[in-house]
Amino acid sequence: MMTPIRRHLNPLAIVVFWFRYMASLFWLVPVVLFSNGSRTFELLGTAGCFLLLTIMAVVRYWWYRFEIGNQAITIHSGVIFRKQVHIPYAKIQTLQRQQWFYFKPFHVLAVSIETAGQSHDEAEGSLPAVSQRVVDQLQKLVNKQSQDPSSAVSNSSSVIAAQSQPVAEQREDSNRSPELEQNRSAAVSAGEKYKISWRDLNTYALTSVGVVPILLGLLWLYSKLDDLLPDRVMNQAVNTFVHYSFLIIIAVLIFSLLLGTIVSYLTIVQRYYHFVLSKRNQQLTTEKGFFQRNTISASQSRIQAVIFRQTVLRQLLGLVSVQLVLASTATKAEDENNLVMLPVIDRSKVPIVHRFINWVPTDLPAFDPISWAGRWRMIRNAVWLSLIPVVPLVYWLRPWGWWSLLLMPLAVLMGLYAGRQMGIRQIDATHLAIRVGSHFQRDTVIVAKPKLQSVSIKQSIWMKRVELAHLILNIRQGDDVQALRVRYLALADAEQIYGWYRGQTD
Amino acid sequence: MIKGDALPEKIKVVWRISALGTLIFGLLITGGLLFAQHFWGWWQWLVLAALALTVVYTLIGFAIIPYRYRYWRYRISTDSVEIESGFFFHVLTAIPISRIQNVTLEAGPILQWQHLQTVNIETAATTHKIESVLPVTAEQLKEQIMTLATGVVDDDTD
Q1: Cβ contact, residue pair B125, A461, below 8 Å
Q2: B95 contacts A481? CB cut-off 8 A
Q3: Which residues of B touch A300 (CB under 8 A)?
Q4: Residue range of the domain that includes B62
Q5: Are A302 and B157 within 8 A, CB to CB?
Q6: What is the DSSP string of A42-84?
Q7: Could you tell me the CATH number of the domain that includes residue B85?
Q8: Residue A244 — pLDDT band, cuts 50, 70, 90?
Q9: CA-to-CA distance for A35 and A94, rounded, in angstroms?
Q10: pLDDT given at position A389
């Protein structure tokens, strides 16, 4: 493999391209169905379209080529506008493999390669259909890079720590992985594996189902219908709907809510079906999905932060969801753009995380709460915010609007909750633990100093008197920034962390 | 307050000009509304509100210039850049040099006329701005940051 050869994708890519073109022409279907043209014309047109799409797909396939070099992969694509992407393995953040069930018999997968470059919602490199052999080769090269000590990995201490794990923990069947043989030099390959149980998956799906996403889904469906159906049909449907009595509307609403709940439950079960997390050679890999097997792998050193997420519901049930913040958009379909590392585990099983990522503490750290002066301000702010809808509702919607006053005790509760969760502490020389709560959900974030891009202390003139300040820690998430805001912290504490971050004193 | 450098004195002129700009813009809007009131019978309070807003906004703009200047500080040390600003809303930011991805210098027409430049410091996640520096300082700063940034191992998103 000294001189990289230009290779084509698997011929099944033609099918992939064909369906993609087809999907982009889907809006034509109603036009054809509702038009008054003659049958023969329609048939001819459709056949012509199919032929044209086939030719386009074949041409695109022919011009889509890639080279797997020693240091980088190069992808050539495009017919009229030629494009050439060059990605060094050392810069790859995540490698994502997707395989639909109908491609499984052919051992063909789609691969997306993501770097930290900001190419907005699009993978820097993608191979829509390649054979398993090619994927393995690519993965091997990427793994080699992430192990190479010269490849600018800052927390090299973690690499050493991982290698000192006992041989007994090596649970991988080594005959299945040729790269393992190659990497004998890395004294022990610390293999770890976590497989989700059916019970955990079920719990995860049940505790994830929220009303808001369902309503959004219905709204989306409505807008889609609005687009697809002609106005006349839509108006008629809405009119008949309005004519039914109030009761039926309520029944329909409850029914659609139920349906939405079931659908979103099934969606989650489908998405995280047979979830497997594994670690090998500093590479973390999650694998999941029923219809489409989705495998994402990232080097341990690419993890920007680890989040332990608990909604109030999960908190009450003693459950935690663990997520990874990555500088890649491969995870945009998951929980708030983070890679789900462990969908849901029992609070007592948190030490598992340490086995996969050794700089994460073996248990959720405890925090000193912020002062009551700060907590009172959190409550006050929540109440102020609730006044924005409450005041106009009370003023203009006389009898019914009064119900909105119920938002105020809710706001007090929310402020109380957020204030109680807020906290920050240093867990060792290079790691911070931060806990923030909002909207009845709390996140415990573990982050390493090298991944903090910048840190700010904010203080308004009114906070000066009581010596409180906000501490804002910025980390990279996906293509964007995630600001961790520890609010109304004692100024001295904020300054201490700030000083630690700056790394020197005057 | 950190023991850093203040912005160049000339930035006050730029701020005054931009406050004047808001005044002109506000007066134009007010004029437009007056026109609309006269010919199409729009509400009169709209005109008064626009005028009041313009006056108040401009006055505040002019009034806070000394404070803005007094509380703006930046400091570039061997391993970090620190930026501080604001009296009523005080913000202090630290950016380690090793996190800096690129530095951009820019200047609009007013800044060019005053021979000033804005420095934008970008990390993998955030962008920070030093509102204005003299061209000499800008060049020096760029050099310093770039040499420091190339000298250290990049440990940002990697």
Answers
A1: no
A2: no
A3: none
A4: 6-68
A5: yes
A6: HHHHHHHHHHHHHHHHHHHHHH-EEEE-SSEEEEEE-SSS-EE
A7: 2.30.29
A8: low
A9: 47
A10: 87
Q: Which pLDDT tens digit goes with each residue over B58-95? A: 999 899 899 889 999 998 887 888 999 988 899 999 99
pLDDT per residue as tens digits for the range A484-498: 999 999 999 999 999
Write down the domain spans for chain A: 7-195, 210-271, 303-369+422-502, 372-418
Cβ–Cβ below 8 Å for B158 and A154: yes
Q: What is the average per-residue pLDDT within A97-124? A: 82
ipTM: 0.82
Query: With contacts defined as CB-CB under 8 Å, which chain A residues touch B89?
Result: 458-461
**So what's the pLDDT on residue A399?**
77
Report the pLDDT value the prediction gives residue A176, as an integer from 0 to 100. Answer: 39
Which residues on chain B are in Cβ contact (under 8 Å) with A151? 158
The answer to whether B153 contacts chain A (CB < 8 Å) is yes
Average pLDDT over residues A55-74: 89
- Chain B's closest residue to A155, CA to CA, is B155
B80 and B121 assigned to the same domain: yes
Q: For an interface test with B, which of A148, A301, A447, A454 has the most B Cβ atoms less than 10 Å from its Cβ? A: A454
Chain A's closest residue to B91, CA to CA, is: A458
The continuous run of DSSP H or E covering A115 comes out as strand A108-115
Total number of domains in chain B: 2
pLDDT at A484 (0 to 100): 92
Give the max Cα distance, chain A: 85
* Residue B156 in domain: no
- What local confidence, expressed as pLDDT, does residue A147 receive? 64
C-beta separation of A424 from A433 below 8 A: yes
Q: Is A506 close to B3, i.e. CB distance below 8 A?
A: yes
- Chain B residues with CB under 8 Å of A282 CB are none
How crowded is the C-beta side of A93, counted as CA atoms within 13 Å?
A: 27
- The CA distance from A70 to A89, in Å, is 9
- Which domain-ending residue is among B53, B68, B83? B68
User: Taking a C-beta distance cutoff of 8 angstroms, is the pair B152, A503 a contact?
Assistant: no
Q: What is the pLDDT of residue A36?
A: 67
